[in-house]
Amino acid sequence: MIKFPTLSGTKRLERLRPPSGQLRMVLDTDTYNEVDDQFALAHAILSPERLTVEAIYAAPFFNNRSTSPEDGMLRSYDEILLLLEKMNIESGTYPVFKGSTQYLDKDLNPQTTDAVTDLIERAMNSPDDDPLYVVAIGAITNIANALLLEPQIIEKIVVVWLGGHALHWEHVKEFNLQQDVPAAQVILNSGVPFVLVPCGGVTTHLHTTVAELEHYLRGKNAICDYLVDIVVSYEGNPTGWSKVIWDVATTAYLIDHRWVSTRLMHTPILTDQMTWSVDSSRHLMRYANNLHRDPIFADLFQKLAKLS
After folding, report:
1. How many domains does the chain have?
2. How far, in Å, CA of 41 to CA of 212, rounded?
3. Could you tell me what percent of the chain has a pLDDT over 90?
4. 3-state secondary structure 245-305
């Protein structure tokens, strides 16, 4: 049984305050899984006034766009490099690391990978008064592995995760969460300072359309054209269709927390049946319960279009 450090109530509340000032962050992403991770990665990099992106980690995924969790991770790694190239970012500017090749098993045997090793080292070297924000927008395997291998990083990081559905949902069978339930349980039970950004019921507000993307992004630069193209190809642009760009909710929260309404609440229990269970004696987390779609997309589109 792993024994995690216990944060004082004062320190937890301090870490869970809505973010302000310059923030250090790493991004953990299953980038090739869909089309929204690409927007979130670009949004983070194009927001240096608020975010210092220190590293990018490839996360595993397994669906019809991969042949295994490892293949999904490797495809995501390649997609990260492709995005940086299309943004005219010189190779090596942002360290990119390969992550876990398999999901966490029920015995919680952690896997050491380049991403996990970097996260541990980067977190442990963080000043006590300047925590590292770990933004996860895929299965949270890499972060759970890091916590299991070095529990002390709990004192050095804040995890922001897009995963599961709203707490009033009848189940939490959402892709990021259901890919690796044991990893999600590790995060929720560990006591790490944690911001939960649910999908169903919260980030479902972040819809855009092909017409909107064509209007604001088409022809502006290589990354804009690429982002439009992958959305168009994702569903073949049927009549009346829109696409939710879920993952941008996490970067939006860090850039301007007023765009994402949150509140403090007791961390729920994630059952093996993928439902939420309530225990009011558990540690506090910050929970996103609403967001303001228009200023988020305005910020995203303006930054993308200005990139030369």
Report:
1. 1
2. 20
3. 94
4. CCCHHHHHHHHCHHHEEEEEEECCEECCCCCEECCCCCCEEEEEEEECHHHHHHHHHHHHH
In a domain, 2, yes or no: no
SS3 labels along the chain: CCCCCCCCHHHHHHHCCCCCCCEEEEEEECCCCCCHHHHHHHHHHCCCCCEEEEEEEECCCCCCCCCCHHHHHHHHHHHHHHHHHHCCCCCCCCCEECCCCCCCCCCCCCCCCHHHHHHHHHHHCCCCCCCEEEEECCCCHHHHHHHHHCHHHHHCEEEEEECCCCCCCCCCCCHHHHHCHHHHHHHHHHCCCEEEECCCCCHHHCEEEHHHHHHHCCCCCHHHHHHHHHHHHHHCCCCCCEEECCCHHHHHHHHCHHHEEEEEEECCEECCCCCEECCCCCCEEEEEEEECHHHHHHHHHHHHHHCC
> Per-residue pLDDT tens for 48-88?
999 999 999 999 999 999 999 999 999 999 999 999 999 99
The answer to the question of residue 16 being in a domain is no
| pLDDT grade for 234, boundaries at 50, 70 and 90 | confident
Range of the domain at 236: 22-306
CATH number, position 89? 3.90.245.10
185 in a domain, yes or no? yes
Query: What's the confidence (pLDDT) of residue 263?
Result: 98
**Does 254 score more than 80 pLDDT?**
yes
Neighbours of 140 (CB within 10 A): 28
Q: How confident is the model at residue 236 (pLDDT cuts 50, 70, 90)?
A: low
The residues, any chain, with a CB within 8 Å of residue 3's CB and separated by 6 or more, are: 151
What number is the average pLDDT over the span 156-165?
97
Residue 271, domain member (yes or no): yes
Report strand pairing: 276-277 vs 96-97. unpaired
